[in-house]
Amino acid sequence: MNPGMEALAIAGAFAACSVWMMRYSMTQQRNIAERFIRHLEALVEEGKRDAERHRAAIRALAGAVHRNSALLTKLLEERNGAERKQRHDQTKVQNCRK
Fold first, then answer.
1. 16 by DSSP, 3-state: which?
2. pLDDT tens, residue by residue, 15-74
3. Does pTM surpass 0.85?
């Protein structure tokens, strides 16, 4: 083999090896990018599920707060009514004593 052919063979082997390495690294890069995209998509879906759970919990909490507020309002009205009645009865007793 003459030196020119030998240099050409080495250059060809180098070029082939370089092309193979580029293709291999690009394939690996694509695989990494695809895994990352799948990971991001999974995070988005998980975020959607979390948001839906939070939405349902907030709705339930809002309903409970509304019910509790209504009960407290009713209790206060009953208490105020009982206090008024008690004051009224006391006033009657005082008026009767006079």
1. helix
2. 999 999 999 999 999 999 999 999 999 999 999 999 999 999 999 999 999 999 999 999
3. no
| Confidence tier at 91 by pLDDT (50, 70, 90) | low
How would you label 65-93 residue by residue, b for 16+ Cβ within 10 Å and e otherwise? Answer: eeeeeeeeeeeeeeeeeeeeeeeeeeeee
Is 2 in a helix, a strand, or coil?
coil
- Structure tokens given for 95: 């008026």
Residue where the block lists tokens 């990971």: 39
CA-CA distances (angstroms) from residue 39 to 32, 45, 46, 50?
10, 10, 10, 16
